[in-house]
Design a protein that fits this description.
Elements (H helix, E strand, L loop, with lengths): L2 H4 L10 E3 L5 E5 L5 E4 L3 E12 L2 H4 L13 E12 L5 E6 L4 E4 L4 E5 L3 E7 L10 E7 L3 E6 L4 E4 L7 E3 L4 E4 L4 E8 L11 E8 L3 E4 L14
Antiparallel strand pairs: 1-2, 2-5, 3-5, 3-8, 4-5, 6-11, 7-10, 7-14, 8-11, 9-10, 12-17, 13-16, 14-17, 15-16
Length: 226
Amino acid sequence: MNQPLAGFAPAPVTARMENHGNHMLKVAMQTGNDLLARVGSMVAYEGFVQYEPNPPAVRQIAKDWLTGEGAPLMKCSGDGLLYLADYGANVVVINLNGDGISVNATNLLAFDAHLTWGVERVKGLAKFAGQGLWNTKISGQGWVALTSRGKPIVVDCGGGDDETYVDPDALVAWSPNLKVKGKRSFRAQSLIGRGSGEAYQMAFSGQGIVVVQPSEDSTDRLRVRG
């Protein structure tokens, strides 16, 4: 191999999911250990890997996506190495190890198909955001890959009384056991975040983490209505 290119070759497999650089996910595929991934995220694969868009397991939950929360998913199965990416976004790999995580669906890249998952309404936010916020909750023993528009910060809420405030348009994921509430504020374009008018932040407290990206989601998910 040409020496300058040799540094970009994949490293030996050491886990089910690994980063290849900052912007690509490498998944070690095995028969019987299927993967659910964002449709269109496959950039390369080695071996024998098959794809099934909108499989039955996804269709059963699709009714919850009428709210707009959720990402089109495909089932990946087979043996080999699978490489996934999402328009050059940073990739964050998490081994849940029996825990759970609540994810903004636009930041969900892939997860083990045997994990327990579903779309849930975030409690305590309806009065701030009309119909409220819906997120994808994933839990169990297995792997999850998220994307972030830029290198994210992972904030440890610490379990104390102090609250961590996040612009919802920059929110990627959080521990589902955290307490969540909304906080109204008037934000002018030059003061807090982007846009203008009345908006709010999400306040987190308890034991857990919050993942925040350095770019606000253009879908403007949590603007106050009414």
